[in-house]
Every structure is written in structure tokens, then in C-alpha cells.
Amino acid sequence: MGSRVSGTVAEGPGGRYALWLQGCRLRCPGCCNPHFLDPAAGEEVEVAALVREILAAGGEIEGVTLLGGEPFDQAAGAAALCREVREAGLSVMVFSGHTLEELRAREDAGVAELLAATDLLVDGRYDRSRPERARRWVGSENQRFHFLTGRYAPGVERAAPGELERVVEVRLGAGGRAFVNGWPEGDWT
Ligand code: SF4
Fold first, then answer.
1. DSSP string, 103-146
2. CA 23, CA 74: separation in Å to the nearest integer?
3. Which terminus of the chain has a smaller tally of CB atoms within 10 A, N or C?
4. Structure pTM?
5. pLDDT value of residue 189
6. Closest CA to 3 of 23, 18, 24
7. What is the Cα–Cα distance from 167 to 34, expressed in whole angstroms?
8. Which domains does the chain have, with CATH numbers?
9. Who lines ligand 1 at CB under 6 A?
10. φ and ψ at 4, to 5 degrees?
11. Which residue lies with its CA nearest to atom 6 of ligand 1?
12. Residues ≥6 apart with Cβ < 8 Å to 161
């Protein structure tokens, strides 16, 4: 695991628990999360411990968002987590640098399980030549929203009147290091 935030409004619909999984084999120029690329970095956390932590957030969140890094590089563990939180009534949103077609073409049971446990998938590599200016949460125009269940409907990615199009959150950790989320362009940390 790369990092986690127990309550954010910058990574999907409503209040969410956000989990950045460590490791990504893709190398999109301008990647906004280069510190999550090395699979050997980060820390190992048991799925059960994460589920307990997420459920402890109780009514404060409506769902969980997995980002990275690449969540599908740890698909089986991520799927186990997502199944459990969905059984508790939470929604699941996943960001992947791979397209849905690429994921479905893989012969990997874990990948299929994670797709089956996902309500809302955002797919595709980050393309810094096509910055997104209209839709929320995504970095570039090529990235697509896939509504894999009926939990969310097309249009959720666009701000309603009175809502902010982009929310950026800054947290200061130990030693004064800043953790920035909600801004998918370039590395701010
Ligand atoms: S898929 Fe995401 S984490 Fe991986 S290199 Fe591209 S922008 Fe970075």
C-alpha cells in the first residue's frame, strides 16, 4: 500500500476512503503519482485490517476509492477488500491506467474479481497533452468512466450547479511533508 486517507471529498462521489496502492508498471509521462510507481516501496497491510479501518469510518463515507499506482497489479487483494466493503453498503470506485478492454482480455481471476466488485471504473493512461477541464476527478480527456453497476449514473462526473468542479486537499504529515490529493496533473508532493 502506498498511502490512504480515511475521509476525502476529492476522489469520487461524496465522502470517500481513498487508498493508493503501491506499484505501477506503466510510465505515463507527467504521472501525477511517481512516488507510487515502485512496487517495492510502500508498506504491507492486511486486507482485514484495512476493512476494519474503512468500516470504522461508518456513516462518514459513502464509498471507497482505489488509486495508485495500479490497483489491478494487486487485483486479488483489492477484490477481497472491495467485496467486503460493498457487502457493508459502501460503493467502490477504481482508477486504472489500463483500459477496460485490456483488463477484460487478461486471463487473471483476480482482475475479473476486482472488476466484479467495482461500481465505477475510471480507465486509461494519463495523457498530459490532453488535460481534462470539464469532468471531475480525472486527469486527461482520454480517460473514461465505466458504470459497471447501477450504483452511479452517467453525469456523476460532472459538477452540479453550485458544486466545485475540482477539490484539492492538502495534508501535512510528520516532518511537514505535504500530501496533496485531488489534483491529477503533475507531482505536487
Ligand atoms: S497509470 Fe497512473 S500511476 Fe501508473 S504511470 Fe500512469 S498516471 Fe502514473
1. HHHS--HHHHHHHHT-SEEEES---TTSB-SSSSS-SBTT-EEE
2. 9
3. C
4. 0.91
5. 43
6. 18
7. 21
8. 3-181 (3.20.20.70)
9. 24, 26-28, 31, 33, 36, 68-70, 97, 125-126
10. -155, 150
11. 28
12. none
